[in-house]
TrEMBL record:
Matching InterPro entries: EGF (IPR000742), Galactose-bd-like_sf (IPR008979), MEGF10/SREC1/2-like (IPR042635)
Gene3D superfamilies listed in its UniProt record: Galactose-binding domain-like, Tie2 ligand-binding domain superfamily
Presence of the UniProt keyword Isomerase in the record: no
GO molecular function, one term: scavenger receptor activity
Record-annotated EGF-like domain positions: 174-211, 218-253, 449-484
Naturally occurring in which organism (per UniProt): Dreissena polymorpha (Zebra mussel)
Signal peptide positions on this chain: 1-23
Top-level taxon in the UniProt lineage: Eukaryota
This protein's name: EGF-like domain-containing protein
Keywords (A to Z) from UniProt: EGF-like domain, Membrane, Signal, Transmembrane, Transmembrane helix
Keyword Repeat: no
TM segment ranges: 500-522
Amino acid sequence: MFTQERRALFVFGLILHACKCTGEIKVSLQGATLSTDGSVWDDWVLNRTIDGRTGNAEECKCCTAIKRPTWLQLNLPQTYFVKRVVLQGRTNVVNIGRLYQFRNITMFGGNADNHMVELWVTTSSDTIRTYEISPPHAMQAIRVVGQQGPDYMTICEIEVYRQEDCIIGTYGPNCEQRCHCMNGPCDTLTGTCGTGCQSGWRGAACNTTCDNGWYGRDCLSRCGICLNSTACNKTSGMCPDGCAAGYKGSFCKDGDIKVSLQGATLSTNGSIWDDWVLNRTIDGMTGRAEECKCCTAIKRPTWLQLNLPQTYFVKRVVLQGRTIVVDGANHQFTSITMFGGNADNHMVEQRVTSVTNTIRTYEISPPHAMQAIRVVGQQGPDYMTICEIEVYRQEDCIIGTYGPNCEQRCHCMSGPCDTLTGTCGTGCQSGWRGAVCNTTCDNGWYGRDCLLSCGICLNNTACNKTSGMCPDGCAAGYKGSLCEDAAEEKTTIELSHGELVGVVLSAIATGAVCSVVAVLCLRHRRRQTSTSNNMDRCQGTAVSAYDALSPTTKATSHYDTLTMTIPPTSSECEQIPTALKKVEENRRLQLNQKTVAATYENLSPNLTTGEEQYEKCENS
C-alpha cells in the first residue's frame, strides 16, 4: 500500500510539473491604440475591435471592416509575454462574401515593425481564429495582415492573453529563468535587477556566477591566493583548502612581492660615518657591519630617502640594522619615523608594526601608492644605522582590475588599465565611460565611451547601455532596431457627419472664390486686347509726331506686353496669389499710362496737329 501511495504521489508530481506556469490572464486593453493603412467601411471604426463586444455585426455595432489588402495593428499598453491571441469575427455569416472575413490573413507579434515574428494559427473557423503561442512571446504590438481578396477583412474583437506573474527570483517565458537580485523581484521580461546582485552572482539579470578568482556582491571582490590555485568560495571568498605558501589571513590576501631596487636612488642630509656609503642599504646584504661592509651610518638628526624605480602599491617595508649590537649601537633604531608617498609634500607617516634592536617592520594595509620612502632619525646620542631596506609590493592586478588589493574595476576596450590609476588608454568598452571606464552610461546614452544617443523608447525607458536596443520596443511613431527612424504609417481618418459636411462646404466655397477670380482675370484680358487693337490703328498716324519727342520724354509702357495667365483649372487655388499679383501689376501699369498721357499733353504746341489726328483716329 505504501508503494502504491508513493507511485501516486510521483505521478501527481509529474502532472504538477507539466502544468506549471500554464495559467493565463486576459490583458486589459484600456490605453491600447489601433492603426491601419486601409479604408474602413462606413462608420465601422477601429476601436470597435477592443470594446469587449461581439455578435451580429449590424445589430451590435461592434466590428470593423477594412478593404483588402490592408493591415490592422494593436499596440498594447506595455510589453507582455503573450500566450494566446483570439480574433473574433461577425457571427452572422450569411453570404459568400462574409465567409472571407478571415481568409488569407496573417498575424505578427513583437515590439516593433522590424522585430515582429509571424504567429501560427492553431484553430480557425469562419468566425473565430485562435493563435496559441508556446513558449510565450514578448509582445507590445500585434499586427493582423489581410492579403489581396474580393472583400473586406472583418474583425469584431481582438483578445490577448498573457502568462501569469512570475514569483520573486524568476522571469522570462513561463517564468523558467532565474535571477538573484539583492532585494525584491527582477524585471519579468529581461530579468534586470535594479538593486544589484546577491553575493556570488553578476550580470544584468544576476544569473551568472562569479568568474573564478572573484566573489561577493556583484562579484566585485578578488579572491586571495588559495592553496593549489583553487578558486575561493564565490559567496564568502574563503579558500576551501587554505592559503598558498607565503599567504595568510581569512582571505589569503596577506601576500606580497619583493621590489627589485635596481635603478633606485638614495639621498640624505646628514654626515656619513667613515666609508659607510648609502648604497650599502640596497645591496642585498646583511650581517655584522664591520665584517660584511653592508651598512650605512648617518649622524643624527638626519634623514635617508629611497627613491624607487617607479610607483608601487607598497604592502610592507622592512629596515634591517647591524646584527651585533654593542655599546651605542643598540640605539640604531631609536626615535626614527618612516614616511611614504610620491613626493616630499605628499608623504604620509607609516606606523611600525613590529620592532627589535635589529629589525623594524611596517605593515601597510591597505597598500599605499609609493615612489619614495623616507626614514627620519630624530636627535640622539649616536648614529642612525641601516644595513638594508626591503620593500614589498602587492601582486600584479589581472586585466579589468586596479588599485589597492586590485579591488577596483575598469572596463577598457582592450588590454589592462593602469594598475595605479585605472586609466584606460584604449577607450572604454560599450556601456562605460570616464577616465577609468568604471562609470555606466547615463540614461539616454550607450555604446563605446557612451557617445551614442538612444532612440525613442516606449514609455521613455532607457535603452540598453551596451547595444542601444530599447527593452520594450519603440515609442509610437518610431521604428528600426534602435528606434531612431520616424515611422510613416497611413491611418484612416474618421469624420463625423457634421465634420464631413463642414469639409464639403469649405471645398465648395474655395472653388467659388477661385472661379470669380478667374472670370475677373479673363474680362481684364479681353479689355486689354481691345485697347491694344485701337492703339495699333492710330499708331501709323501718330508715329511721326511721337518720334519727334525728345528721348528723355519717351516712355515705354509694359502694359502692351502684359500677359495674364489664367489657371488651367479653377480648383487649383494655390495659383490665386499669382493671379492677384498680376492684377495689381496691371493696376500700377495703368497709372503709369496716365502719367505718360499727362506728359504727352504738356508737349510743345508743334505736336498739336499730330494729337488732333490721333484723336480722330481714336474716335473712328
